[in-house]
């Protein structure tokens, strides 16, 4: 029973890493140290929040993870949603910058936010 809280924390940490992926992609982070710093900071923040406020964090993170996976799946057919790891490599090498970045990504990001809000509200009811 004591380990349950930390298991939820690990789930939340993975959700934090996914939030970090979205943040680094949205702001086109090219510095490797900043990239990993954001990922680790988001994971740590979500871990500690989940340990303190279990149920709300579980609802929000499962909503976000589900929304992200749904949008990612749709984007595999529609296109325009970059792979976070590949995009990080391209930005680091200078192959992609703000002018060459496909702006369709922000439509997908908006869809993730809207679906997360909708599914969080649905789960809370």
Written description of the protein model:
The chain is mainly α. It has one domain. It is built from five helices and no strands. Helix 1 packs across helix 3, helix 2 (32-52) crosses helix 3 (54-78) and helix 3 (54-78) runs antiparallel to helix 5. The longest helix is centred in the first third of the chain and has 25 residues, at 2-26. The two termini are 26 Å apart. 27% of the residues are buried. The model has no long low-confidence stretch (mean pLDDT 87).
* Form type: flat
Largest sheet: none
Count of helix runs? 5
Approximate helicity band = over 70%
Rg for CA atoms = 15 Å
Q: Give the tally of structural domains.
A: 1
Order of helices and strands: HHHHH
Average pLDDT figure: 87
Query: Which spans of ≥5 residues are poorly predicted at pLDDT below 50?
Result: none
By secondary-structure content and strand pairing, the structural class works out as mainly alpha
What fraction of the residues are assigned to beta strands by DSSP?
Answer: under 5%
Q: How far is the first residue's CA from the last residue's CA?
A: 26 Å
**Using DSSP, what is the number of strands?**
0
């Amino acid at each position: 029973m004591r380990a349950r809280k930390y298991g939820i924390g690990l789930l939340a940490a993975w959700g934090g890493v996914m939030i970090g992926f979205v943040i680094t992609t949205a702001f086109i982070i090219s510095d490797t140290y900043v990239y990993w710093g954001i990922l680790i900071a988001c994971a740590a923040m979500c871990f500690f929040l989940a340990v303190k406020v279990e149920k709300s964090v579980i609802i929000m993170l499962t909503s976000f993870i589900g929304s992200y996976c749904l949008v990612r799946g749709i984007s595999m057919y529609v296109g325009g949603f970059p792979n976070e790891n590949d995009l990080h490599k391209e930005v680091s090498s200078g192959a992609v910058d703000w002018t060459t970045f496909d702006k369709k990504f922000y439509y997908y990001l908006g869809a993730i936010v809207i679906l997360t809000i909708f599914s969080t509200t649905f789960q809370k009811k």
